[in-house]
Amino acid sequence: MTQVLTIGVGAELVQRFSAASGGGLVSLGVEALGADPGLLDHLAASPPEMVVLGPGVPLDHAFVISGHVEVAAPTTSVVVIAPSDPDLWMAAMRAGVRDVLSPNATLADVTAVVFRAGELARARREAVAVDPATAATGNRVIVVASPKGGVGKTTVATNLALGLAASGPGSTVLVDLDLQFGDVASALALTPQYSLPDTVHGAASNDPLVLKTFLTRHPSGLSVVAGSDSPAAGDAVTAAEAGRLVETLSREFCYVVIDTAPGLTDHTLTVLEQATDLVLMSSMDVPGVRGLRKELDVLTELHLVPAGRHLVLNGVDSAGALSMEDVEDTIGAPLDLVLPRHNAVPLSTNTGVPLLQAGGKDPVTRGLQTLLQQFLPPAPARRGVFGRRRAGAR
Ligand SMILES: Nc1ncnc2c1ncn2[C@@H]1O[C@H](COP(=O)(O)OP(=O)(O)O)[C@@H](O)[C@H]1O
Ligand SMILES: [Mg+2]
């Protein structure tokens, strides 16, 4: 038996759904959509395997409902009854609709759709039942954050991701979680077809395979979830959606690198819950360093500092009045990396060629390589020609 709920579906088709569901059918009129408590509350409490929205529900409304059902009841498939049309089909898929069925569908068509929904619901229930803590994959989720903007988060996140991507094909994804002013795509000279909102809404949000088609590929092999096209589109992405995206990506990629907006936004806090590593950055000035200390204190109180903690000071020049000791005293912890100010960085930002890709010898590139090593597994002592040669050279 498959639990099917139809809304605004004609009597003849309801009969076919009833037969196909094996007696698991509940059929409601469109007025159920305006009822109180809302339909979504009911669905969340006791989700059917399938919700069928009939011609009685206007299509734009059906798409909105589908998006909500995805969030409230992720194991439920939504099917819309509408005449077949490729444009409509695409719009439906992007809204999270699982299938579009013709109003003249035969019993065989209906049975096939109901069967698929039942299978999918079972598969998703099993996936949801896996406790993320016990399903630990050993994959790393690296969050790059800072209390203030303009301190080098995007520079570090893009370079780190690029360096990690070289560890294996399909190993690394970079997520631009600076919702309003994300500039990862520009720092990598990418022209993305899709961006963050596309990956958290619609079909990509509950199917890792579909999700992968929404990622942008850098020539290095790095996958990228580009930032939203506009601040308004970025605002439509909730912290919970960002959290779910990172959870899915962390099952698919060895390394998930996340660039963030300045400060402790809800989104940053949410993804930190899953982080294995935090790269916390500051510039070398009094407000910046104090901000870093505060952010570290707050995160410690919230138990959100992951096991891998990397404190990075960036844009350091000798003209500054602060000494390294002053900085470490204020932060109350040793710095893991200090990157100097260097012209190679703005040049790289402006041309979209990351420093690790350009492979220069400047001190910032060397510093980034040092940081990268902290995330790569230690090289085996003897492995192939290069391993032996290196061992022999020592
Ligand atoms: N070490 C550095 N030396 C010189 N310029 C830097 C350095 N680090 C970053 N910048 C420049 O500062 C600007 C802000 O860097 P970015 O990485 O975008 O910071 P954030 O993401 O924290 O806002 C960019 O134009 C970048 O080229
Ligand atoms: Mg940035």
Throw out a few tags for this protein:
alpha/beta, Rossmann fold, 8-stranded mixed beta sheet, 5-stranded parallel beta sheet, 44% helix, 16% strand, elongated, disordered C terminus, binds adenosine-5'-diphosphate, binds magnesium ion
Please provide a written account of the structure.
By secondary structure, this protein is α/β, with parallel strands linked by helices. It has two domains: 4-129, Response regulator (Rossmann fold); 140-376, Rossmann fold, CATH 3.40.50. The chain is built from 18 helices and 13 strands. The chain has an eight-stranded mixed β-sheet with strand order 8-9-7-10-6-11-12-13, sandwiched between helices. A five-stranded parallel β-sheet has the order 2-1-3-4-5, with helices on both faces. The protein binds adenosine-5'-diphosphate (ADP) and magnesium ion. Magnesium ion binds at residues 153-154, 178, 183, 259.
